[in-house]
C-alpha cells in the first residue's frame, strides 16, 4: 500500500519536495493533517517518507507519529512500539532510544504507541507541549526531513497545537467526501493556530480515464 501510494502520488510528491525542501527557506519539519478521521493522513505521510527515502536515502528521513489517539504506525510498518512517543513526551523514554528504522521501507520512524483505553484518556494537549521542546529539535538535529503525522483538525485540538511547532502543514482531503466548506473551516482553524499551510493533497481520487490522459484535458 505504501509503495503503491508513493508511486501514484509521485507528481504531487515531487512538487511538494521541491517547494518544501529546496526553497530559499527550506522546511525541515512538515506536519500532515486532515479535517476528519480516515482521509489518509498516515498513508500519505508514510508514502511521502518512502518517496523521500528513494530520493535522499533513509538516513535523512524520519516519520514521527504524533497521533496518539489513533496510532497505526506499529501495524502499518510492522514495528514494535514498547518504546514510543507517549513515553518520550511523559519523560519515561528518550528520543534516541525510541527512533527506529523501518526494515521494509528504509526510513526512520517514531511510533506513538499502542491505542489507549477510552476510559482513561490522557491529556493529549498537555503531553503535546513537550513535542516542540523535547522531541522535534532532536529530530531536526539528526534528520533533514521530519514528517509529523497528526490527528484530524476538526474534532481534536492536537493539530492546532502541533502546527505552531513545525515549518509547514499539508492538509489531506478525501476526494468526493469532504465538503469544500469543511476544508475551508479546517484551513481557518489551523491558520488561527498560526499554521503555515504549504499545500493540500486530494486523496482517494477515482480516475475514470487513465491517469496520464488528464494532462491533456
Ligand atoms: N489513496 C488511497 N487509496 C485507497 N485507500 C486509501 C488511500 N489512502 C488511504 N487509504 C485507506 O484509507 C484508510 C484510512 O487511511 P489512514 O489510516 O491513512 O487515514 P488517517 O487519516 O490517518 O486516519 P486517522 O485519522 O484515523 O489516523 C486505510 O484503510 C487506508 O489504507
Ligand atoms: Mg492516521
Automatic annotation (TrEMBL):
Presence of keyword NADP = no
InterPro entries to which the protein is assigned, alphabetical: Bact_polysacc_biosynth/exp, P-loop_NTPase, Wzc-like_C
Keyword annotations for this protein, in alphabetical order, are: ATP-binding, Kinase, Nucleotide-binding, Transferase
GO MF annotation list:
protein tyrosine kinase activity
User: Is Transferase one of the keywords?
Assistant: yes
Q: Which domain of life is it from?
A: Bacteria
What SUPFAM superfamilies does UniProt report for this protein, alphabetically?
A: P-loop containing nucleoside triphosphate hydrolases (SSF52540)
Q: Name one GO cellular component term.
A: plasma membrane
Q: What is this protein called?
A: CpsD/CapB family tyrosine-protein kinase
Which species is the source of this protein?
Answer: Desulfomonile tiedjei
